Amino acid sequence: MTWVFNRTGESLPLAMLLHCGVNNYFSLAWFDLFPSLPDGYAAHAFLLSSTARAVVLLIATRGRLGCPPVRDAGTLSDRTA
Fold first, then answer.
1. Is residue 34 part of a domain?
2. Does the residue 79 lie in any domain?
3. Is 71 exposed, middle or buried (0-12, 13-18, 19+ CB in 10 A)?
4. pLDDT of residue 79
5. What is the rounded average pLDDT of the residues 28-33?
6. With 80 as the cut, is the pLDDT of residue 2 above it?
7. For residue 8, what pLDDT is reported?
8. Burial call 30-45: b when 16+ CB within 10 Å, e when fewer
9. How many domains does the chain divide into?
10. Between the CA of residue 62 and those of 40, 53, 72, what are the distances in Å?
């Protein structure tokens, strides 16, 4: 969600829409798509898949998560001199 927030120009409604979509998917479609998965394992499977996606996204964006690089404003001695 941080990546979506940063890449959409810090649009909170779009981040909320993504959050709502994930919640709805997990509560409505998850059990229909995976009927043989026991109820106790559903949360673990979702946690594992979410963690794997987060790690891939962190590696792919090198930890920036879509946020533009911060320009160095200079050190304190550069500004006072």
1. yes
2. no
3. exposed
4. 53
5. 79
6. no
7. 83
8. eeeeeeeeeeeeeeee
9. 1
10. 34, 14, 19
- Is the pLDDT at 76 greater than 80, yes or no? no
Query: What residue numbers bound the domain in which 49 lies?
Result: 2-65
Nearest to 1 by CA among 61, 40, 54: 54
Identify the band that residue 34 occupies on the pLDDT scale cut at 50, 70 and 90.
confident
Predicted TM-score of the model (pTM): 0.51
Asked if the structure places residue 33 within a domain, the reply is yes
Residue 28 token pair: 């409505």
Q: What is the DSSP string of 2-59?
A: HHHHHHTTS-HHHHHHHHHHHHHIIIIIHHHH-TTS-HHHHHHHHHHHHHHHHHHHHH
Whether the CA torsion 30, 35, 39, 40 is positive or negative: it is negative
User: How far apart (Å, rounded) are the C-alpha atoms in residues 73 and 60?
Assistant: 27
The amino acid that residue 59 corresponds to is I
pLDDT attached to residue 17 = 92
